[in-house]
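Protein: Alanine racemase
Species: Aliidiomarina maris
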Amino acid sequence: MNPLCWPHITSATVLIDSDRAKRNIQRMQDKAVAAGVILRPHFKTHQSVDIGRWFRDSGTHQIAVSSLKMAQQFERAGWRNIMLAIPINPRELAAINRLAGECHLTLAIEHEDALLALQTLSHPIDIVIEVDAGYGRTGIDWRQGNRISDLANAALALRHVRRVGLMLHAGNSYQASGDDAIAAVHQQSLERLSHVRQTIAAPAQAQLFVSAGDTPTCSRMSSFPGVDEIRPGNYVFYDLQQQHIGACDWDDIALTLACPVIARYPERNEVVVHAGAVHFSKDYLLSSERFDGRPCYGQVMRSSAAGWYPEPVAGAYVHSLSQEHGKVRMPAELIARTKLGDMLVIAPAHSCLTMAAMSDVVMFSAKA
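Structure follows.
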């Protein structure tokens, strides 16, 4: 279906350019092969069984997810090597145990208390200990090497644990800007992870594996010393945030929102679209140069008969959201040409949350 057959799209709808997405997928797969690491893409970005097949076609066999429900969804779709890349929830142990009986499952822990929960499992699992190298979300601080070593060996001693590894997500790379800043986060994170790895005592040291990675560093860096597998996710679509920090180019963005105009306010240089916080996300950008110091939840793109051009419309962006309304700042001459019911094609600040929130999705090929 051509997404810009506007009569067929009546409400806020996610548009996915399959050509761009497949190109992004293959490029990351090729990079992993060249770097000598396994690519374990994080499927939380797309959460789609159909899109998951694009990864399999490129050579992917191992995946990461961020919820048990997601893990179950992809196991039913035939994926047999799954990492639940979020600290385990003891309330889900019965379902986790059933899942471990159906696939090669890796679980993440970040505290000694998790060992009590793991003892109740009856199927083999792998374990990764999450290390915090500076992001400050979850994980054991990288400076607590002895504690991490003790936890690794205690986990390995459990009856159903096959092997133990370290897991790192350098989410602080999302606050970097440009290759040099992204490289600095990458180098610092891997140096700290290497320090932890060297402190792990036997027997865990002998079979330890390392899983790391995030979209900015995996997109811009070409080597991953000390890492066995990388776990980027957002790269399948990219988004305005990734373009802003230099992790991708405009032509790499493979997901936008088609948003109908429902109100015009030339006197305040705004239109309103029926697409609000429940369609975009909580994330936004701030840039005095690009957005006049206002928050930007999405950038209006120049639309085409086959989707959209990799070209932003200068001065046109979503600067305010309520539940169903999005206020779009626009140049006066563009507002004059915009009618009620027109569709704006908008690249969201964060594609992961937009995709998770939306049920109306159109996938298309601009080459079709």
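Remarks: The mean pLDDT is 94.
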